[in-house]
Amino acid sequence: METPENNRGYESAEKIILRWDSTASEEGRERMIFGTDRQEADVYLQAVDEIQRTLSSASISDCSHNVDADDQLKVNTTIQIAMARLEDEFRNILIIHTSALEIDSLFDSSTSFSSSTPTHHELEDDEDCISDDSGSSRNNLLQLHHCESSDSSTYRTSSSIREVDLMPAEAICDLQAIAMRMIAAGYLRECIQVYGSVRKSSVDSSFRKLGIEKLSIGDVQRLEWEALEGKIRRWIRAARVCVRILFASEKKLCEQIFDCVGTDIDDACFMETVKGPAIQLFNFAEAISISRRSPEKLFKILDLHDALMELLPDIEAVFDWKSSDSIRVQAAEILSRLAEAARGILSEFENAVLREPSRVPVPGGTIHPLTRYVMNYISLISDYKQTLIDLIMSKPSTGSRYSGDPSTPDMEFTELEGKTPLALHLIWIIVVLQFNLDGKSKPYRDVSLAHLFMMNNVHYIVQKVKGSPELREMTADNCLRKLTGKFRQAATSYQRATWVSVLYCLRDEGLHVSGSFSSGVSKTVLRERFKTFNAMFEEVHRTQSMWLIPDGQLREELRISISEKLLPAYRSFLGRFRSQIESGKHPENYIKYSAEDLETAVLDFFEGYPAS
Q: Signal peptide: which range, if any (predicted)?
């Protein structure tokens, strides 16, 4: 072998290397080789190749003891200078070709290429579904065409993944050429570190623009839920962009640069770039999944679950290398914990409805806040029907539930055969709510008001069920008939409790003393009947005008029902006995109202007027 001193090719290559040595050359400090003169870059790469060939030959000769130690040292020093320079060039190319991504357009493209079902509750992202591409496999889509000046689209898609070309083809070629020489010279670790540090900074910058904060699991769990709700909504949108575009594009770039090297460096560089950001991204969802459970969290947890379930195939596609196992496992475990949290919250909600302890009567017998809360909650649950059907796998046993326990209602499931477990959960919550409302009606001192309270609340339940197509579909027809019958029975019970005693004053029994029907009426008893009726009606009017039926149609129906019983009875009684009262003294003290007056007064009932 020729020694470096006798090798003209080596000497020429060494001069080129030393010319660009930034520690010894002013030109090397002030200029970069790549990106200025294409010919200079090619010459430098050829010089590096020559030095590496010399180094390889020297290593072979060293085994035969045919090379001088000084010559070996000289070659090693030269290659070290070359690698230091290439490392700087590698870093510089990465930096100058790292540009900020347009976040707004990323949101648009992530949404357009989403394959998800629409999000629920307060989420505003309406998404179009897209079917999987047929024909070519993902491996074909990701096939690398080295150093092509491609005229193809900036985006490549696979299902909902949308990859962005992060660098121009010429820059990729330069990076690829440098990486091959650094790795051949044994500088694999340095190559990975430089690549990872620059690209991770770019990913971190995109995270900041996406609003993804650096929060630990503890930080997330210390936030108030109201603050977290907005963060969850932003996280869902950002996660779609991160997985489908940002991470996918970073993986594509790694493959474009490093696939040709023939090692697992593309895998290593990808994880060096995105592992930290990916953990940061998923730590937020993990913190939510293990946070303290409460009913108000259910819907955001379901939103998170749906979003992560939708993203899971994309996560598995993007993080499909062995070194990415931890990311795939973390995502799957979070999904499982979110599902368990949702099931737990639903079960705890049932118990909370059953045990809700307030026994202070609601003024006016109106709809109890618990009724509104529970039924609105159930309506929202029905919006997540498919998700919850998938999550709730265990079906309550047939037969009576909690049969024989006086502190819980009974429910026969035999008549609900064929209903999904979710439907049975919702029906059970309604049964539990009714049971609780029965208890809340007991403190009312006025029995009529207790019946009105039950009528209002059960009617509200019925209207909420009828008003939600999803809830009505899940609720058995028999269950809805029972609910309708219950509020009608409460209305009937109210009328009996209030008006039977009032109408009792208008009966004929007890008015006749003896003799014929017309001549045997006791005026004293008759006057007392009119006075009693007036007093009772005035008391009913005074109290029940302060009671409230919020539903206008129900209020009008009950007034009509009252009028249909009261007015004919009063007209008949007045028609039969008016002459006896008017023939005596001060008839106005006894006949205070016409039938029209009563009809007008009934219109004041259930308006919730303040006490006067």
A: none
Residue 397 has pLDDT above 80, yes or no: no
Q: At what angle do helices 325-355 and 421-441 cross, to 10 degrees?
A: 30
- pTM, to two decimals: 0.77
Residue range 84-99, pLDDT digits in tens: 999 999 999 999 998 7
DSSP 517-532: TTTTB-HHHHHHHHHH
Q: Is the pLDDT of residue 125 over 90?
A: no
Close Cβ partners of 245 (under 8 Å, ≥ 6 residues apart): 106, 109, 110, 161, 162, 163, 164
d(CA 229, CA 123): 10
The position carrying tokens 């003209």 is 8
φ, ψ of residue 404 in degrees (nearest 5): 90, -10
pLDDT at 111 over 80: no
Better pLDDT: 267 or 126:
267
Report phi then psi at 216, rounded to 5. -75, 170
Report which DSSP code applies to 548: B
SS3 assignment, position 234: helix
Phi, psi of 164 (to 5 degrees): -105, 135
Long-range contacts of 310-317 (CB under 8 A, 24+ apart): 310/114, 310/115, 310/116, 310/117, 311/239, 311/240, 311/243, 311/244, 313/159, 314/159, 314/160, 314/161, 314/243, 314/244, 314/248, 315/243, 317/138, 317/158, 317/159, 317/161, 317/248
Strand partners, 158: 161
Instruction: Indicate the average pLDDT of the chain.
Output: 83
3-class secondary structure for 279-332?
Answer: HHHHHHHHHHHCCCCCHHHHHHHHHHHHHHHHHHHHHHHHCCCHHHHHHHHHHH
Q: Angle CA(318)–CA(320)–CA(323) in degrees, nearest 5?
A: 115
Instruction: Supply the pLDDT for residue 138.
Output: 25
**CA proximity to 570, closest of 534, 535, 539, 525:** 534
Tens of pLDDT, residues 586-610: 888 899 999 999 999 999 999 999 8
